[in-house]
Write the structure tokens for this entry.
Amino acid sequence: MIRIEQLEFRYPAEEGDFTLHIPRFGMASGERLAITGPSGTGKTTLLKLIAGIVPPVRGEIWVDGQPVHTMPDGERRRFRITRLGFVFQDLQLLEYLDTADNILHPHRINPALRLNPEIRQRLRKLAADIGLESKLAQAVTALSQGERQRVAICRAVLTRPALILADEPTASLDPANKLKILDVLFRAAEREGASLIAVTHDHELLDRFDRVIDFSTFRCPA
């Protein structure tokens, strides 16, 4: 699913002069991988590199057989929209839209996606599966934090992505809701046959994953 070789990325000095170097990294199709470690070690940056949100300075990033590192901006964007699902740490929900329209928003603004009756039917099925069926007409401002997390997950998996990237998906949740949200993510990944990478600081959840990478000691995993 993912292969990274001699990856290097750095922010400019005015943004902290941060450098990330990953000699080698691999992830199997269908794997559930957790990334943990201190703040500022590059966990979120790695997700953005895999998603093509930021390009590397050098090195190779292959995702689902595609060379993300050589794609021009437009092609990276299309690949990210159609093949990846990203659950952002800040969720990036639009408060002026209701739950259903937040989930459908990428289909309204991206020509690479088609909003048709099949997508709407799929939305209703996903919402029922993750406990949002009765919330679709509600404003997201009226939802609990756990429900808002579910909205972000539903939006991320609506396109049937090959890879789900989740940045702190259980942050700011109580222990019971953390387990529920993780279950939602795992079910979504399993149902779609998708791989999953989750950045998390919740060490009590790590044994639920197939593999854990700790960025405090991360050097060169194969």
Observations:
- The radius of gyration is 17 Å.
- The domain at 2-214 is CATH 3.40.50.300 (Rossmann fold).
